[in-house]
Amino acid sequence: MMTIFKKPIVLSIILILLGLLTRLLFLSSPSQIVFDEVHFGSFASSYFTHQHYFDIHPPLGKLIIALGAYIGGYQSYVAAHGAFPFHLIGDAYGSVPFIWFRFFPALAGALIPAAFFYVLRQFRIRPLIAFLGGLSLVFENMLLVQSRFILIDAFLLLFGLFGLGVFLRARNKNYNMRLVIISGLFLGACASIKWTALGYLFIVGFFILSDLVVYSKKHLPIKKILYCILRMMVGFVLIPFLVYFMSFVIHFRLLSLPGSGDAFMSKQFQQKTIFGKFIELNNKMYVYNKSITKPHPDASTAFTWPTMNSPVYYWVNSDTTRAEKEKIYLMGNPVLWLCGIAGMLWLLFYGLKKYPHQDVTLVLIIGYVANYIPFFFIHRPLFLYHYFSAFLFSLLAFWVGADHVLPKVSPQLRMVLLATLFLLTIGSFVLISPLSYGFIW
């Protein structure tokens, strides 16, 4: 049985299958608009009417969702009925192939546990512990909810984790060019979902600069140093930019007709060249990101996120007269969120001083800080899901700490601790799951 843990590909497949099971299960429930499906469903639908829309986020996430809708036959629906309006939360989808709008977010969410496992393996974590780390995310309720609807955060997390993991592998192999290119593609895709992905790029940039300083101190031949700089510029500047830019090119090509987005742009916008439109749209995205002031009852401040004080109310079934109604809340598995807090405490009070692999502790602390602290300086309404990336780094810290601590206890106690942790994790997941899947709790 233990030989299975020597085969990472088998462990990855197990995690993917479990991820698919939990994310695709009941994907058609509810058959009503949930939370920000109002926005992202409408944006994806615009690619079928070709009417220009405006959003404060880059377009790649909506393009991927639109691809799922295209595969599911939404183009035929639009031809027969016109575009679905995605008007209000709770509106019924009827004959709209809405499951296909949700498919790629669910698929991305299903792959996140395997991506988490991959990052832990790049940290040189034992296969069993790395597998358990990935398995824990299968039972993370907040990640489950955000993966099952027409939302884009699952793409950001998946691309960010894989981009970071491949970067770490490339760095361990003296910046192997093939791995550098793959990492750059993932990181570019991550930045093309939301600008908050810059936290992942910051980690990569920090280590690239620190490595260049080390190379310069080794007095390597100038040609070798210049070659290293060229590889890094191509992999982590040029390729991410090209991915980001091309997502806008496709966006502009598909949105060739006037639409609601024109009100946000200059009168000359539709006549500009592709690059001119790219510059103006990104400028407008920045301006309107800063100007969002409309309050929301479930908005929360960043300092409350680690303790999950403010779950977000996503949906209630208004079509039933029953006293007890089906509801969906964005809330995490409290056992895993406590593990995240424990992971950061271990990192701060032990890992930064005594953990033998200081490059790992630097990735964790920089990753957490870069994906959390900037939100303290943002004045627009924020929500618990903005803590996703930072939470994943806190949970990475927990499993790194577990890999360091558990070998120091007896095998019997180790099994008891891990079994207890997963019984509590799965029990908590099951208890909260009606609020994740939209059933009566």
- Overall SS class: mainly alpha
Taking strands numbered 1, 2, ... along the chain, how are they ordered across the largest sheet?
1-2
Report the count of strand segments: 2
User: Span between N and C termini?
Assistant: 38 Å
Estimate the strand proportion.
under 5%
Mean pLDDT level: 93
Largest sheet: 2 strands, antiparallel
Q: How many domains, as an integer?
A: 1
What is the molecular shape? globular
Model regions low in confidence, pLDDT < 50 over at least 5 residues: none
Q: What's the helical proportion of residues? A: 55-70%
Cα-atom Rg, whole angstroms? Answer: 22 Å
Strand-and-helix sequence, N→C? Answer: HHHHHHHHHHHHEEHHHH
Number of helices: 16
Provide a descriptive summary of the structure in words:
The protein is an all-alpha fold and 441 residues long. It has one domain (2-267, 278-437). It has helices spanning 8-24, 37-49, 60-71, 74-81, 98-122, 127-138, 141-147, 153-172, 177-191, 198-217, 222-254, 274-291, 334-354, 358-370, 388-405, 411-437, and strands at 312-316, 327-330. Strands 1-2 form a two-stranded antiparallel ribbon. The protein is globular and about 65 Å long. The model has no long low-confidence stretch (mean pLDDT 93).
